[in-house]
UniProtKB/TrEMBL annotation:
Entry's family note: Belongs to the SMC family. SMC6 subfamily.
One GO cellular component, as annotated: site of double-strand break
Gene Ontology BP annotations: double-strand break repair via homologous recombination
Protein's organism: Homarus americanus
One MF term in the entry's GO annotations: damaged DNA binding
Protein name, as recorded: Structural maintenance of chromosomes protein 6-like
Top-level taxonomy: Eukaryota, Metazoa, Ecdysozoa, Arthropoda, Crustacea
Gene: Smc6-L
Pfam families assigned to the protein according to its UniProt record, in alphabetical order: SMC_N (PF02463)
Residue span, RecF/RecN/SMC N-terminal domain: 259-859
Amino acid sequence: MSAQRSQDEDDPDEISAGPSRKRHKSAHVYSNNISSSLQLSQQEQSASSGILEYVTVKNFMCLDNMMCAFSPQINLVQEPQALYKFFLKATQLQQMNDDYNELEKALKVSLDIIEDRKEIIQIEKAEEDAKKQVEGHEKNVAKIQEKVAHFQEKYEEQQQIHKGHHEQLTTVTNQLVTHSHKLKECNESLIKTRKLHKDKQMLAVTADRKVKGIMKEIYVLKEAIKKDNDDTQTQWASHRALWQEKMDGIQNEMKELEQNMRTEETHHVNLMNTVGVKKAELTQFVMEEKAIRRHAIEQELQGLKGQQSNQFTVYGQWVPQLLHEINIAHKKRAFKKKPVLRQLMKKINFGQQPQPIVIVSRFREQVHDVSKYEVQSDKYPSLWSMLMISSDVVANTLIDQCQVESTLLIPTAQEAGQILKNKTTVPRNCKVAYTLNRDIYYPDPNYRLYSGRGQQPARFLQVSLEEKVRALVANLENSKEEMRTHNLEMQKSRANLHKLEEEVQASSRKLTCSKKKMDQLRLQLADLQNQEEQPPPDVSQLEDDIKQQEVALIEAQASLEKLKEGVTSSKDSFMQISSAYEELKKGEKKLFQEAENMKEKLSEDEDILNKLSHTVELYKEKERDFQKNKKESELNLEKTREKLREELQKAGKFQPRKDTVRSVHEVKRQYDGLQDRLNREMAANGDPLTVANRYKEIKQRFITVSGEIESHCNLIKKIKESLSLRLEHYKRFRRLLAIMIKSNFKISLSIRNLHGSLNFDHDNSRLTLSVVKMGSETDAEAINILMKESQNKKQTLAMMSGGERSFATVSFIIALWDVIESPIRILDEFDVFMDIVARRQSLTMMVKAANTKTQYIYLTPIELDTTGLPNINVIKMPDPQRAMQ
């Protein structure tokens, strides 16, 4: 225990006498639980009294504000509502608020009493208004019902008109469908007739060309007979040889060019396919895979760094929760030993991590004898021989599930391949082998190899969280290196793709030039074929050809005449069908216009029906509203009558009610007569002065009470104004206290290079505490930039570690002490979760924050180094007597 005092309070007598000279206005006492009634229990009071007597603080019960005590349970206050309540009670704002609420309630009660006096006078007036309102509602309901019936009749009439229009539209639609079928049939017949007519025309044109060709052939044959001689034959032979030579040259060149074009087209197609493959390779496959892997590693790394205080998270973030559930089940005696049950596993939320494999094995208290099945190798060890397992259950599980006795450990892949490829060199009982690179080898006769690259390293059988973090950081760096390599490969692929596209363009240009050249050669070949000269014919043969052509001419002319007659008949048939088609088309257009007109009428009818239906619904809704208002008015009238009956019953206690049909004037005149009679009776039977004095007294009392009520109303008005002003001052005082606490809190946190903020939500009674690590930057601009970047990384008390939460709580308490008036301040176990540096910084900060008019007492179970800290007395309490408890 350590206690701090100022220099002018070293004498114990001054400590006890000091508070008696200066009394404070209110007391601040805080227990371990903020939600309690804020009173120290009897045990805590006795413990506090003993501590204060031990440090020479006596007679503190005479003080109004004896001490301000905080315990470490404040660290458990994490809800914003509880923190705000703690702030209000620490700064006396809660008491001010309670006083204000009590005064406001008293004011409301006074106003209610005054208002109740005026209700009886307004009851009869309210009854008359209610009657008038009910009668008005009845008239409105009758009018609305008449309008609803009128519009309902219009709606039914419009429905009949709409039905007639709909029937007409159906008839026109059926006619239009029938007409469309006829038009379709006519159109098909017209197309057939047009095709037949064109075919006959083509045959006639072909026959005419044939006749002309035969006539030309006869003319050519006759001319050839006249020009037949030996010189013509010789000249034809020389021209024929030259022509054949040109034809052969062009054909050879075309063949060669065609072969080149086929080769170039094949090359072009291959280039296009290659370009497509390269473009597909440049898509998002590898990028997405790498980005997802990197994001997952960063999330896991961040989660592990944030939970370094829990060593069990190295086996998965769900392991602590699972162990907690198992401990709860074990405490409830659900089983004799602690197994991993299926129902317990279902309660765990694994998040994005893969669910663990549940291993079920028969329980044995002895380890299996695996000597017969263990792999036998002189050079390489087995996995079973490398493991040191203290639990028999774990050892049996590894034997049953993983066959660790048949697993061989080989350092390099070359040695593993040499040993396991050949059946003769495979060690006995070896079923699988692992290398240092996590490669998996299955021996011959089913030799297989699975690369360990890209696989996750073992997350179990580890005891250090830092090693796990380093491994994840290494994986993250490898992933970044792979991303850079992938980017270089993508750049190379883009360059290759650019080259391929240039080659494709060159190939396209080459193919275009080849095609142009081929077209030119074809034109030259066609010209040569057209320039071919016919050999000079034999005269006798020519005469026979002329006779044959003349016979063919006669037959062709006869056929041409028949075809011309058929063309004429098909033309007449086509004209008839075409005219019928035009008439049907006009009829269809007319029917279509009629259908459109009917649709417009139907649309108009539907609009009218919708409007009428909407009007009817509107008036029905109004009728329902009026009925509802009528019922409400009747209920109000009944309530008013009930109140009136109650008041009449109260009045009947003094004088029974008399029913009359006379006017007020007559009743007043009768009242005057009765008053005269009363005066006569009093004159005859009593002293009128007594009655007059009593009347004056009552009148004077009435005037006095009226004046008191008026003054009371004025007082209430002034109290309202005072309350409003007091509320404004209260809010201003609360805001100033919040600003002072925020400033002191930030100053205290800056000692540990932290930046914190207190968010006061006075409307919702919430106080949120947030802390951000600043790093090496200290200027205001850097802090603002850091706060913007870390906006999503703020830590509340629930998210902090134990040491950070204790330091933040100490900073918050010191900020509160600056606005609290108390001669004695006690802080119990402030450094429970702190490390040495934080404890030293906290103690230095509390020493600097101390003033000369207050005594500070700090209770701690840990030894403190107070070297270099002035004005500190360290008092060590005697060890408790354990045997006496």
